Amino acid sequence: MTPPMGWNSWSTFGCNNSEATIKPVVDAIASNGMAAAGYQYVTVDDCWVGGRNSTTGQLYSNATTFPDGIQALAS
Predict the structure, then answer these.
(1) Residue 59: beta bridge partners?
(2) Element spanning 28, H or E
(3) Long-range contacts from 16-21, C-beta under 8 angstroms, 24+ separation
(4) What is residue 31's DSSP assignment?
(5) 47: DSSP letter
(6) How many domains does the chain have?
(7) Range of the domain at 9
(8) Which of 3-7, 55-59, 62-66 has the weakest average pLDDT?
(9) How confident is the model over 2-51, as pLDDT tens digits?
(10) Residue 56 lies in a domain
(11) How far is CA 59 from CA 6, 27, 31, 47, in A?
């Protein structure tokens, strides 16, 4: 067994993150053996939020830096 392992966007990009900067990292984790070694999480922990829906209260992604939405990035 391995401990929970992952990669955190803040540690690398701070608030200079975007869909375009995170996707290549995710692809690299999947293709370079890190996923097979136990890396299973990618945390986008800050600077992705564009606002909060006033009706539902749900957060939505910044349309400029995450044009496909956080759901598309997560899948």
Answers:
(1) 52
(2) helix 19-31
(3) 17/44, 17/46, 17/47, 17/48, 17/65, 18/65, 18/66, 19/65, 19/66, 19/67, 19/68, 19/73
(4) H
(5) S
(6) 1
(7) 5-70
(8) 3-7
(9) 788 999 999 999 999 999 999 999 999 889 999 888 898 999 988 999 99
(10) yes
(11) 23, 25, 31, 12
